[in-house]
């Protein structure tokens, strides 16, 4: 009976438009609906493929990691708390960030929060059959890669977080709340525990982060903060190296198992490659992801054109149009993937048209100041 009453109340709430509030009360449930999740879609026998690739991964993947001793650290770019010039360095940082625009801060904060949710991405990688780190200290090259990749990524959020904190231009408490919400809510990866899906996603996503950090670097330079430009550029270089690694894995999968790989590529593109922070929420704006990505689109940091460009790049890099000997289903997937970019570009035109009419929206991250979307 109680269950029935709950259903009726929920339906009524949905009907009169309170559905978001009903969800919001459940703090660690995503503010947005997460659809049914398919699990373990890769046939178990395919796990052998990933076992057989361990020698390859050792040679081709682990060599793309940077040794810790040669890696940059956030402290290399930040005021030195143990130096006499600490306060002057903070003053200089604040002078530099004074000129940065509100919309730039919104996009940079969104990027930083996305980086800060790295525990979620490590979990997602460790959900993939055949490559997961089964003991948290496993010495398979796949597990070593995932841990070291996470450790490299962890510096990105650290650095941007500290820089933004010192700027004094953003509401750190609201940002920290958003990070806690996001990590608590997770990510709708749609990986299905399937490493074919997972590696196609990471190839796409690392290139997307390379592009967006590259663009925030360019904008920081234009708006007069050379140091921040250097920071974003340095992070972008890491993303590029990660992209190289994931693209190589998928290239190898295309070589040894083209049919499954092209089907996986089409499957992921049909589901759309959603950004990892899609479930972002600050406790106030139930549409925060759409608002943040509209700001990024308007500012030219990450746009629908970039999405189409990445897709086109990957199709070319993996020579998808040249694959032969595919099954009927494989050929259909090949046609779909190869013909998708022009359709995305059309969508981009429509998005640009829509952007002209978009409203200004307040963002909690910048003390409720409004940004034109
Ligand atoms: Fe990153
Ligand atoms: Fe990355």
UniProtKB/TrEMBL annotation:
Any Pfam family: FA_desaturase_2
UniProt signal peptide: 1-19
EC nos: 1.14.19.-
Keyword Acyltransferase: no
Subunit structure: Homodimer.
PANTHER family: ACYL- ACYL-CARRIER-PROTEIN DESATURASE-RELATED, STEAROYL-[ACYL-CARRIER-PROTEIN] 9-DESATURASE 5, CHLOROPLASTIC
Protein name: Acyl-[acyl-carrier-protein] desaturase
Originating organism: Hevea brasiliensis (Para rubber tree)
Lineage: Eukaryota, Viridiplantae, Streptophyta, Embryophyta, Tracheophyta
């Amino acid at each position: 009976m109680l269950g029935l009453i709950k259903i009726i109340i929920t339906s009524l709430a949905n009907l009169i438009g309170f559905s978001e509030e009903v969800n919001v009360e459940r703090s660690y449930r995503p503010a947005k609906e997460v659809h049914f999740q398919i699990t373990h879609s890769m046939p178990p026998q395919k796990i052998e493929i990933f076992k057989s690739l361990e020698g390859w991964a050792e040679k081709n993947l682990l060599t793309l990691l940077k040794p810790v001793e040669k890696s940059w650290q956030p402290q290399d770019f930040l005021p030195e708390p143990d130096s006499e010039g600490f306060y002057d360095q903070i003053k200089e940082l604040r002078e530099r960030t004074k000129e940065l625009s509100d919309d730039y801060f919104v996009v940079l904060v969104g990027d930083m929060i996305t980086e800060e949710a790295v525990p979620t991405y490590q979990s997602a990688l460790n959900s993939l059959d055949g490559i997961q780190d089964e003991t948290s200290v496993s010495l398979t090259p796949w597990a070593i890669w995932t841990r070291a990749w996470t450790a490299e990524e962890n510096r990105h959020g650290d650095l941007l977080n500290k820089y933004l904190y010192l700027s004094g231009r953003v509401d750190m408490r609201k940002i920290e709340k958003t990070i806690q919400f996001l990590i608590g809510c997770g990510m709708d990866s749609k990986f299905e525990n399937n490493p074919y899906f997972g590696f196609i996603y990471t190839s796409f996503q690392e290139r997307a982060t390379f592009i967006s950090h590259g663009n925030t670097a360019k904008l920081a330079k234009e708006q007069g903060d050379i140091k921040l430009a250097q920071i974003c550029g340095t992070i972008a270089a890491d993303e590029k190296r990660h992209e190289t690694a994931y693209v190589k894995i998928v290239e190898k999968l295309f070589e040894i198992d083209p049919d499954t790989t092209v089907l996986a590529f089409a499957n992921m593109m049909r589901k759309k490659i959603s950004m990892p922070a899609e479930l972002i929420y600050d406790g106030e704006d139930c549409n925060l992801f759409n608002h943040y990505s509209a700001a990024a689109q308007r500012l030219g940091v990450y746009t629908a054109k970039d999405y189409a460009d990445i897709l086109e790049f990957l199709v070319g890099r993996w020579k998808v149009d040249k694959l032969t000997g595919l099954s009927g289903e494989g050929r259909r997937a090949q046609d779909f993937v190869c013909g998708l970019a022009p359709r995305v570009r059309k969508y981009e035109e429509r998005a640009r048209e829509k952007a002209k009419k978009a409203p200004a929206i307040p963002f909690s991250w910048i003390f409720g100041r409004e940004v034109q979307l």
